[in-house]
Amino acid sequence: MKTNKTNTGKLRKLVNTFIGLLLLIAVWSGIVLSNKYDRSLFPSPIDVLSGMKELITDGTLFSHIQTSMLRFILGYSTAVVCGIILGLIFGWFRKFWEIVDPIVQVLRPVSPIAWFPFIVLWFGIGNLPAIVIIFIAAFYPVLLSTVSSVGKVDQTYLKVAKNFGLKQPQVFTKIIFPAAFPHIATGLHIALGSAWVFLVAGEMVGAQSGLGFLIIDARNNLRSDLVLAGIIFIGISGLLLDKAIGMLEMWIGKNWGISPNERGI
Q1: 226-235: string of b/e by CB count within 10 Å (b at 16+)?
Q2: What is the pTM of this model?
Q3: How confident is the model at residue 74 (pLDDT cuts 50, 70, 90)?
Q4: What radius of gyration, in Å, describes the C-alpha atoms of the chain?
Q5: Can you tell me the distance from the alpha carbon of 253 to that of 256, in angstroms, rounded to the nearest whole number?
Q6: How many Å apart are CA 186 and CA 127, to the nearest integer?
Q7: Is 43 left (phi over 0), alpha (psi -120 to 50) or beta?
Q8: Given pLDDT bands bounded at 50, 70 and 90, which one contains residue 256?
Q9: Could you count the other beta carbons within 10 Å of the beta carbon of residue 142?
Q10: Cα–Cα distance measured from residue 110 to residue 56, given in angstroms and rounded to the nearest whole number
Q11: What is the three-class DSSP state of 179?
């Protein structure tokens, strides 16, 4: 019965998604057919589909996606590792965090793009500036969610660890991290969305490749169909990344912490 309900829920979600896409395309086509906007400024779904086919056929799309994904994986994974490690340390040593917290709260609201002039001066032009921007965008959500999660760990777990004679770093790896991970996972999702947005923004202003550059290059060549095609591919790529991090969360949750099913998700 449970399997049937799950399959029915997935089918209903798929049907709703399909209906939503049809409505979007219908509204889009209606606006184009109204002739209120020039097609060079607002291309039709057919024009965009043709542009997508062009990008796929000549290999341009896959080249830009590969470059963007490489930058994203390097920047995001580095931010996650650093954010979780520092978050566990700061969350455990609260007095140290009270000193660092004001600095973090001042730097956190600053857009990574605002650092771009310095990033270019320090790291030059190429892949590294985009990777640094991704790191900055992803680091703070992971750090803050980890610090907060450590503070919410049930003290009973720590008492049990003490009774069993667990010492550092086993307390971090076997008690604190598994207990805090369900809350850390929220930070991972927020960081992923933020990092992906700023990756594209960074590629628009300081790169010669990637999905962000693809949009800027299409704009400079007055190809609005390719601009919209690039936007669609960016959205699809971001969705796939979010699904991937969700699968990773489930795997880590089952092996280290609390699985999504146990949390009622």
Answers
A1: bbbbbbebbe
A2: 0.80
A3: very high
A4: 22
A5: 5
A6: 28
A7: beta
A8: low
A9: 26
A10: 37
A11: helix
Q: How far apart are CA 113 and CA 204, in angstroms?
A: 11
One DSSP character per residue, 47-85 reads: HHHHHHHHHHHTSHHHHHHHHHHHHHHHHHHHHHHHHHH
Tokens at 54, concatenated: 């062009």
In this structure, the dihedral spanned by the alpha carbons of residues 146, 149, 150 and 154, taken in order and rounded to 10 degrees, is -160
Residue 10 token pair: 């997935």
Residue 29 CA from chain centroid, whole number = 31
Measured CA to CA, the distance from residue 236 to residue 238 in angstroms comes to 5
| Cα separation, 138 vs 79, whole angstroms | 6
Which residue type is seen at 204? M
Q: Which of 218, 196, 197, 216 is nearest to 206 (CA)?
A: 216
Average pLDDT over residues 7-25: 79
The encoded tokens of residue 47 equal: 């024009």
Q: Are 65 and 233 in contact (CB under 8 A)?
A: yes
